[in-house]
Amino acid sequence: MQVYLSIPGAIFVSFTLILLIRNGGGLSMADKFEFVGTRLKFAEAELVCQNRSFDGLAVISSPEEFNYAIQATKQLRKKWGLWVALRFDLELQKLMWVDGTELAPNMPWLSSSPTPSANNPCARIHVSGVMGMLPCSNRRYFICGNRIQTFEEAHGITHKSMKPFNISSTLAEHQVRSYKKCAILCSRQHLCHAAWFDTSFTCVLLRPDGYTGLENSQNAQTFVREGYIGYTE
């Protein structure tokens, strides 16, 4: 495990926290993905990825994965968007990543994108750097990926003596020994947007839509994860 701390001036109030937890053989985010500049249909792209020894099209469900893909495809996206492993599930009637993970509510979307449906069931990164739906028969570039997590990475800000307020729902609650452990737990769930730790050793994980802001609390620390960057149209 590597933990990088950057303190840009607001010492003892807030600081940037970057967590990189490596499990197994994963070396970096770059090892997990391959960006392919050949236009194929969705199913064709999935097969090509598997033939290249990937699990298939890439799952980019976390903010860190999505933001990495957006930055890495700047040049490639000047011509075409890229398929990723996000589809409309006809049985569940909702968008799901193919590994079964839920779509984050704060992922950026193209305002003019068709509604996910049987007619437009496949998702791609649009040339503008946000998500959008298309028929699976369209031809686009694509991102291959390995779906088994060999590492977790989380970027965000630590707010000392602050806790979330107006909490409407929680993602999970744990007893942990340290704030760092609490932030690491957040890094392991792509839906986690904030991790609140206090002197009772309670760690509360929150979705982006599970609270509305932060308030003063002397005995608390809160890790607020970076969001999905996206680009505007």
* Helix and strand run: EEEHEHEEEEEEEHEEE
Helical stretch tally: 3
**Unreliable residue stretches:** 1-14, 21-25
Q: What's the main sheet like?
A: 7 strands, antiparallel
Rg, rounded, reads 19 Å
Number of strands: 14
Biggest β-sheet: strands ordered side by side in the sheet: 1-2-10-14-12-13-11
Give the overall shape, derived from the CA principal axes.
elongated
Overall structural class, as computed from helix and strand content, comes to mainly beta
Helical percentage: 10-25%
Overall pLDDT, averaged?
87
Strand fraction equals 35-45%
- How far is it from the N-terminal to the C-terminal residue, by CA? 38 Å
Descriptive report:
InterPro entries: C-type_lectin-like, C-type_lectin-like/link_sf, CTDL_fold. The structure is a single chain. The chain is elongated. The chain has 3 helices and 14 strands. The strands form 2 sheets. The chain has a 7-stranded antiparallel sheet, sandwiched between helices. Strand 1 and strand 2 form a beta hairpin. By secondary structure, it is mainly β. 12% of the residues lie in helices and 39% in strands.
